[in-house]
Design brief:
Length: 191
């Protein structure tokens, strides 16, 4: 078990257990550079992630923890994700652009909307696990094949962020402008 305390990060608890790890995080401050934000919360939440974070797979998440959830558990999971995505682990919903707010509530979330949401959330420092679970839980209202297709699309996006950093762009909340994933400002005259 590892724990540490600093004036900025608050309390962090890490416990290894059966090829996975559990993080219990409590942060008193939300003053972090965008590049260092992966999971910040103002409440206690127990989240389970795979031990090897580099081998992220939306397909595994869909098949192991979302596909067979009963509707009541799925709704509970979406409520928890909403709490995290709306101010606890990401910027409050009221600060998002209106078009992103509308895409966020769709059920199911389609191809183009998944692409826009993933770029917006990942570009603004959201945990890929949180936004992935939100999008994949929206697939409950469609076919199994569509859910698998969506998971493969998310895998494609996360696997190609570095190679497409000069092409893919998102609206950055902090700078209130469009940025490429390589950090360069996008010419808004071309939008």
């Amino acid at each position: 078990m590892i724990s540490f305390h600093t004036q900025y990060t608050g309390f962090f608890l890490l416990h290894s257990f059966q090829a996975s790890f559990y993080c219990l995080l409590f942060f008193r401050y939300k003053i972090f550079p965008r590049s260092h934000v992966t999971f910040i919360t103002t409440n206690f939440h127990l989240i389970q992630f795979p031990l090897v974070m580099d081998q992220f797979s939306a397909t595994d998440i869909f098949n192991t923890s979302i596909r067979d959830l009963p509707r009541t558990r799925l709704i509970e999971k979406r409520r928890n994700l909403l709490t995290l995505l709306n101010g606890d682990a990401f910027y409050p919903l009221s600060t998002w652009p209106k078009d992103i707010q509308q895409l966020f509530w769709k059920k199911p979330i389609g191809d183009t909307d998944t692409f826009k949401l993933m770029l917006f959330f990942l570009g603004n420092g959201c945990s890929q696990h949180l936004i992935t679970e939100w999008i994949l839980t929206s697939q409950h209202w469609t076919t199994l094949q569509q859910g698998i297709k969506r998971a493969r699309q998310i895998n494609f996006i996360t696997n190609n962020l570095d190679s497409k950093a000069n092409n893919w762009f998102y609206y950055d909340i902090h700078h209130a402008t469009w940025l490429f994933f390589n950090g360069e400002f996008r010419n808004t005259n071309n939008l």
